[in-house]
Structures are given as structure tokens and as C-alpha cells.
Amino acid sequence: MSKQPQPISPLKNFFAGGFGGVCLVFAGHPLDTIKVRLQTQPKPKPGESLLYAGTIDCFKKTLAKEGIKGLYKGMAAPIIGVTPMFAVCFFGFGLGKKLQQRTPDDILTYPQLFAAGMLSGVFTTAIMAPGERIKCLLQIQASTGEVKYAGPMDCVKQLYRESGIRGVYKGTALTLMRAFAAVCLYKISEHWDLYSCLRSHNELSIPSVLFAGGMAGICNWAVAIPPDVLKSRFQTAPEGKYPNGFRDVLRELIREEGVASLYKGFNAVMLRAFPANAACFLGFELAMKFLNWLAPNL
């Protein structure tokens, strides 16, 4: 799979990014479910043990209680949202790069890539925030034993009926914080890994794409876990529990469980990060190759 320098096409980035996002969800959703359940499990009362002792324990209990379907709870929401979300993410990043290029051959600096990543993060948050809210609520309800939502659309309807549009978009600020931290590092890592592979091999092979995507995913989540933990807690909390937003969540977690609580689900996140993002990159590159073949001048 050769990688020839071509002018950046935000439109191609849009469609290829959407396909890459679908690949990411299919590859990574089971471990995402485990991550959310670990991040949102309540602190045990005196004399009681944690609901899940860790990643493996959560995986075993989910399989035993709900079967393989339990690992894919809430997947409809990200599948519906991930195509436009990743499409907009790659579109925004492509647009951000193109706006900073004087000629199509210009190689951007890392600060320029960071700026393009920030633009991409802003673009994606409008779609990502409600999708994350719905996904998290559906992922945790099975473990609590209370089935409140019949599915994604029912969840949206109930949230809107109870709290209006603000209820659907609860946690947007935290989603934006996570996006700024993660997308910028993700894109810089992607750029460095891909060009390292190109310098080494003069071509972009499938193993190179998988490695670059996996490493970008790990770099992404290394900085994104704390805001992700706060986001998951805040988005799944009952209305009114945290009147001051994520600051209340942060204070409560630090007070009751210490700084380490900001890295809940770390093992599940890192186990998911490499294969899920490797699949995303491979899907993106294959889709981009097809689009370049289909419409080389687009």
C-alpha cells in the first residue's frame, strides 16, 4: 500500500474517517463497556468488596451474567454517531492542515498539527457529547439491574423529556476537554509514526498502518483517561448530584478514592487502545486509497 504525497482533501477525509470510525467501534466496544463499568462502579460500603476487582473480573462477570451481548451494550449509539463523528474529526483535521499550508507539498510543524487537532476536537464534540452520554447510560444499566432505557432512541427521548436538550448534552465540557487533550496528541503521534514508517520503508504497509494507529491510540488515552473518568461519572450521575459540574466530581473522587481513581479502567483502556485504533487507521487508509482511485482529482 504505497503512500504518495497528495493534496489534502477534506471531503475524502470526511468519508474515509467515517469508515475508520466504524472499524474502531467494532474492534473496541467490548473493552469500552468494561472501561465504563469500572469507571462508574460505586465505592463499596464498609465490609463489602468492589463489584469488579479489575478488568478480567469485569469481563468474566459480564460474560457470565449477560453473555457476549453484554460486551456490546450501547454499541448502537456510537455506531450511529461514530460515522459522522470520525468523519467530522478527520474532516476538521484535514481542513485545519489545509488552512495552514501555502502549497500542497508543505510539511506542517508539530505546533501546526496541534492547532489542526484542536480544530478537529471542536468539530467532533457536538456529535460526540450526546453519543457518549447515551452510550455510558446504556452500558451501566445492565450491571445495576435496573433497565430504564429500552435503547438509544428511548434514552434520548427520556433524557429530553426530563431535562431538555441540556440533559442530552450533559458532560459536553468534559468531552471537549478530553477531545482537546486526546485528539491533538493522537494526531501528532499518528503523524510521527506514519512518517517514521515511511522514512524506514519508503512505503506504507498494512503492518505499518496498524502499528501507527495502535501507538497513536495509546498516546491518546495516556492523557485522556482522567477527563474520561470524570466524564463517565458525571454523565451517569443522577440529576442534581454534581451542581458545580466536573469540579464536584473531581473533588469527590480525590476525597474518597485518591488521585489513582482518575485512572480507573486503565488496563481496559490500554488493552482496547491499540487494536481499536489500529483498526481505525487501517479502515481510514483503505478507504482513502479507494477514494483516491475512484476520484483522484477530488
From TrEMBL:
It comes from Astatotilapia calliptera (Eastern happy). It is found in: Mitochondrion membrane. The gene is SLC25A20. The chain crosses the membrane at residues 75-95, 107-129. GO terms for cellular component: mitochondrial membrane. GO terms for biological process: carnitine transmembrane transport; mitochondrial transport. InterPro entries: MCP_dom_sf, MCP_transmembrane, Mitochondrial_Carrier. Keywords: Membrane, Mitochondrion, Repeat, Transmembrane, Transmembrane helix, Transport. Solcar repeats lie at residues 8-99, 108-195, 204-290. Gene3D superfamilies: Mitochondrial carrier domain. It holds the Pfam family Mito_carr. This is Solute carrier family 25 member 20.
